[in-house]
Specification:
This protein has 155 residues and is mainly alpha-helical. The protein is 48% helix and 10% strand.
Length: 155
Amino acid sequence: MKTEVFIQTDENGKVIAGRTTLAKALKQLSGLHLTVTIEKRKRKRSNEQNAYFHGVVVPMVSEAMTEAGWREAVDVGWTKRFIKKQFLTRTAFNEKTGEGVEFIQDTSALTTSEFMDLIADVQKWASEYLNIYIPDPNEQTSLNYEQNTEGRNSY
């Protein structure tokens, strides 16, 4: 059985929220051998970031890669895997042997700032290698508004 408990501490490490929940979780698991892991909580990417990545970034890269001759890129799933391999390839090292193996980090493991870095890297790469401009999320609305007010597009 695995229980995840969130606690909040002050700058001196004193628990200021979650003490009761932690005590209840420990009581439920009493008599068992326990492993306790304490880590700083990170903000995961937001739903807005996720929607922007899957709804704007990946489709734009997919379309540009397809036009550039990458037939596989017509599949946005392939394009997402390409982006992850291109920008999220990491190396894990064996502490005893020093041997390293490459793996591809999942986008779901990224914090909000790491996800912003990924998007910035993809935007820069797409500009340099695909000759396209991927707008920032806040630019999407203003671009669509300008197009609609000029009568080029309609809702």
